[in-house]
Amino acid sequence: MNPSLKLGLIVAIALEVSFAQVWTVNVALIAVSLILMLLNHVSFKRLLYLTLVPLFFSSTLVWSLSLRGSASPHFLLVIFTRLFVYVYMGGLFTQTTEPLTLTRSLEQNAKLPSKFAYGFLAAFNLMPKIRAEVATIKAAAMMRGQVLHFWSPQLYFKVILAAMNWSDQLAAAMTSHGFIEGAPRTHAMTIPLVARDWWLFGGCLLLVQVGLFCGLP
Amino acid sequence: MATVTINSLTFTYPQRKRPVLDNLSVTFPGGKFSLLTGVSGGGKSTLLRLIAGLTPLPAPNTVTFDGEPLTKIAPGKRAATVAMLFQEPSTQFTMDTVVNELRFALENQQVDPAAMPAKIDAALDFIGITNLKDRSLMALSGGEQQKVALAIIVAMDSDVILLDEPFASIDPPTRLTLLQKLVALCTQRGKTIILADHDLSGYDQWVDHLAVLDTGKVTLLSAEQTKKRFAAFTPEQLRLTHVTQPSSELTVCLQGDQLGIAQGKRQLIQPQDLSFFAHQATLITGPNGSGKSTLFRALVRLGKYQGTLAYAGTNIQKLSRKRYAREVGLMFQSATAQFLNVTVTEELNLSRHFGNADYFTAERVQDLLTQLNLADHAEQVIYSLSSGQQKKLQLLCMLIMAPDVLLLDEPLKGLDFASIQVVMRILTTVQRDLNLTLIMVSHQLSGLDDLITLHLHLDQQHLTYEGVAE
């Protein structure tokens, strides 16, 4: 499916699920996401991670709500499954979409200004460098007798300084490689947006509406 | 073939009084390889950025390509006119893989998608890196990244190629390949090349012209003068009179067993047994990019290494990170990596709080600040200091910490002659007074004689102690 439409579909469904209290739809969405992830060969380790993290948070949430407050069991079930819907659908999206394909699609299909699209991509590709920088800052601080934790403001101050420096360098490099804000560009890869994508988009959204309508008390 | 002409260009950085480029006029001949040289911080990068159009020009018509002002060239045509290769290899790419970055550059030039694969393959083939085509850019070494950056410029077919200290962290074989490719671009394709480097060594057989940037003005030497200048130039000689082979009486502080250093798949230092000795000042020399800084990062547990490393007899992986960091400190090559606070005073107070405040009393620190010409900058924000001032402050901060072993990565980089004298005097005094172990990497070779007692040379992926036996 076209990445931009896929993103739109997932955001739309997530938004609806936040307001509707139908646990059967939640479960159906979880099941569909899980099956699609399995079909796309998402690794078992990743699935386990995607399950255990929301399990911890939704369990604690449900537990605290049932100890105090007057939430009905129905509401607790909705809350419990809703978190899984978010995580599984997010997981399905990130595990089946390449950042570069998404960027190209957002630029070509969704007409997002190219400076946002490529700025985001450049930053994404810098992730390993950011990780190394954090390690260096922590080591430098320890050599001065200070232990920086992930909540220390100094760590963020230094990382932001480094990032500002890199962003200048990146901007210069993009300009040097001929990138100009708002200028027309050709596309080495065209991301297709065909009728089938729209049918799929509409069909999925319709199914969720039907489910929500039937499930409403 | 494009001739680059600069007409009365004056450029002053905001909030500075003195212009860094002062009514500068020069012509870089088309189709030739010019080497732009001058002291660090003298304005070489600024000039290149102005020529590349990365910094807005203070006045139109100050930079022209074959008579056409840079400001008149349509933005879409600029990359085909002039492109730049940067000093830091890793922050010049937008995309994930080599082929995608090449596509990105060609898309920007509105090249027909059907024509792209041929252009990409030709550019990669010209630089000789066809095998890197589908590799992830972040997984490449600095040298490979510079080759990719050059391949992109080849694909964009830019007339003028600017390079800003491109070999700062590149190993000698890669440097040689890149230089050969640049000369081929000049002679075979008529490209105009301007390369900035503060160090003249290793360029004599490659460049056509030498352009010397001094106090805001550039003098372009003719081919004849350039030859003469290179013939008269002798690389700075290392003169160490106190260096001997380490004697058996010395105490070992850091011991590497089959210690090897690799960067990705490339072996920088072959596994070898290596000892560093306590209370000595050891100098490590070797070519750029040969692995000296990577060795330092391994010694402070910031990088991977092969074999084992022991500090005072204990494997460093078994020591607590916090304790080890206080005993073995590193003065990073980039000064700003060391700072944690905002003003000079805050930074010094932090060091005194955790460091050796008994020796570094308030009076002594004040005296050292005066010697380093920093006394008037106490309340200044560190990031607004000049790079030389930052370097001096960084050294002072790390000396106050007084770790048992202090690793110094290019502590004299970018300092003027007078500052080097002061810094070396302070280093020597403190080392003797506190009996510190100093291990130092430096390309600046003069003025080290008083301090250095041991000398390790890195060559052919192997470190050896130089000097005669005592």
Structure description:
The complex is a heterodimer of chains A (217) and B (470). Chain A has helices at 3-19, 23-39, 44-67, 73-96, 99-108, 114-125, 127-143, 153-176, 195-215. Helices cover 76% and strands 0% of the residues of chain A. With 217 residues, chain A is mainly alpha-helical. A 6-stranded mixed beta sheet of chain B has the order 6-7-8-3-9-10, sandwiched between helices. Chain B has 470 residues and is α/β, with parallel strands linked by helices. Chain B has helices at 44-52, 75-81, 98-108, 116-127, 142-156, 172-189, 223-232, 292-299, 321-327, 344-354, 362-371, 387-401, 417-434; strands at 4-11, 21-28, 33-37, 63-65, 68-69, 82-85, 160-164, 192-196, 209-214, 217-220, 252-263, 266-277, 281-285, 306-311, 314-315, 328-331, 405-409, 437-441, 454-459, 462-465. The mean pLDDT of chain B is 90. Classes of the chains: A mainly alpha (217), B alpha/beta (470). At the A-B interface, helix 6, helix 7 and helix 8 of A face helix 2, helix 3, helix 9, helix 10 and helix 12 of B. Chain A: It comes from Levilactobacillus koreensis. Chain A: This is ABC transporter permease. Chain A: It is found in: Membrane.
Shape of chain A: flat
Helical run tally of chain A: 9
Question: What is the CATH top level name of the largest domain in chain B?
Answer: Alpha Beta
Return Rg of chain B in Å: 24 Å
Element-by-element helix/strand order of chain A: HHHHHHHHH
Q: N-to-C terminal Cα separation of chain A, in Å?
A: 33 Å
Tell me the major beta sheet of chain B: 6 strands, mixed
